[in-house]
Amino acid sequence: GAVVSQHPSWVICKSGTSVKIECRSLDFQATTMFWYRQFPKQSLMLMATSNEGSKATYEQGVEKDKFLINHASLTLSTLTVTSAHPEDSSFYICSAGRYNEQFFGPGTRLTVL
Amino acid sequence: DAKTTQPTSMDCAEGRAANLPCNHSTISGNEYVYWYRQIHSQGPQYIIHGLKNNETNEMASLIITEDRKSSTLILPHATLRDTAVYYCIVRVATEGAQKLVFGQGTRLTINP
After folding, report:
1. Taking CB atoms and an 8 Å limit, are A31 and B97 in contact across chains?
2. What is the pLDDT at residue A97?
3. Nearest-Cα residue of chain B relative to residue A94
């Protein structure tokens, strides 16, 4: 149990386009999910906390208008990278909490050309 | 959350025990020690957590010093598949709806 999925696993897009990444908790409900970003050879950096039924909470320095988060249900959160640019190319990872643990998705590799 | 300090990298021979240290000298009384690992290009995987007693599960053992200022994750019989970055995180163990702050972790390489 406690499986988190992400879709797509990888995506390539042109500069200026928007990309949506889905995060699903497959066998449990999660009122809170988290979105992280990871650049090559670096650690995970928390971008935002996604709350079901309310606005996301963004970490300092993360542009909320560029990284749109929607937590539509207790099993689904989406991250939309708007007007993507090459510097947004990264590995995006979501997680969902259950009891005292957090379970991570497999990640989505975004490449912006 | 308390800050942790880990060695940047470690090597271990296959079949031997891998001992990964973590310093968390500013840990608070209600903070737990969590360990996760991340295999290349995958999401982090939960390994184990503990408060003050030593813990063991099917993956690893966690040894926490009596003063709780440091801990050691032990992989008893390391395999090549244990090659990963290991993260030590301290946080209050409330419901899972609490963010994790990742440090740089330890890059563990298991050698044949």
Report:
1. yes
2. 82
3. B43
Quote the pLDDT of residue B1.
64
Q: How confident is the model at residue B9 (pLDDT cuts 50, 70, 90)?
A: very high
Cis peptide before B76 (omega within 30 of 0): no
Amino acid, res. B77: H
Q: Which of A28, A90, A99, A104 to mutate to test the interface with B (most CBs of B within 10 A)?
A: A104
SS3 B10: strand
Contact A84, A66 (CB under 8 A): no
Residue B106 corresponds to which amino acid? T
| DSSP code at position B80 | G
Which of A49, A97, A104 lies at the smallest CB-CB distance from B43? A104
Residue with tokens 């928390």: A46
Cβ B96–A46 below 8 Å, yes or no?
Answer: no
With an 8 Å Cβ cutoff, are A100 and B49 in contact?
yes
To test the contact with chain A by mutation, choose from B40, B41, B59, B106 the residue with the greatest count of A C-beta atoms within 10 A, namely B41
B74, B56 in Cβ contact below 8 A? no
Whether the CB-CB separation of A7 and A106 falls below 8 Å is answered with: no
The string of pLDDT tens digits covering residues A45-80 is 999 998 888 889 999 999 999 999 998 899 999 999
Q: Any chain B CB within 8 A of the CB of A25?
A: no
For residues B19-46, give the mean pLDDT.
Answer: 94
- For chain A, report the end-to-end CA distance as a whole number of angstroms: 37
